[in-house]
């Protein structure tokens, strides 16, 4: 096994972990919100953040680093700045995904958690969290499509 094969293995494993947690997180949050139990909501969102800090952050790092090393530098077999363009597209979409999953969605969950902790009778805020989850999911599937099919 060459070093490049090791990079590719890390890349695909990281992609499995990163993309695999998206539907898991979505279903868990949806289920717990449907239960309408504020203490359970706050606790689950806390736990979700704890888990994601330990899964999503390292796997996104491994994915980015292995992808860059396969397309730029001494071990590269693909080009980051030329055809086929899938590494460039992957890089661009990964940045957008990081904005959605590391900035926008956590802010939504934070608002929901504050609402749950406050025991307020008001309507739950950040109801658009589902739309952002779906957008993130669609971005994840689009990257995998470009990585596997490599249409241009
Ligand atoms: C969310 C982001 C990403 C996901 C889910 C992802 C997923 C994948 C998957 C599943 C493959 C294997 C495709 C196959 O062998 O048919 C692959 C290959 C590859 N990816 Fe990514 N990738 C992502 C981001 C990136 C980035 C940011 C780069 C580069 C900067 C990159 C560069 C590459 C390269 C060069 C290969 C080809 C490996 C080879 O066939 O020799 N990827 N990616």
Question: What do these coordinates show?
Answer:
The protein is mostly helical. Helices cover 79% and strands 0% of the residues. Protoporphyrin IX containing FE (HEM) binds next to α1, α2, α3 and α4.
What share of the residues lie within helices?
A: over 70%
Kindly estimate the percentage of residues that lie in beta strands according to DSSP: under 5%
Question: What separation lies between the terminal Cα atoms?
Answer: 29 Å
What is the mean pLDDT? 96
In short:
The protein is about 80% helix and about 0% strand.
Features:
single chain, 152 residues, mainly alpha, 4 helices, binds protoporphyrin IX containing FE
Layout of helices and strands:
Blueprint: H1 3-34, H2 38-71, H3 86-118, H4 129-149
Helix pairs in contact: 1-2, 1-4, 2-3, 3-4
The structure holds protoporphyrin IX containing FE (HEM).
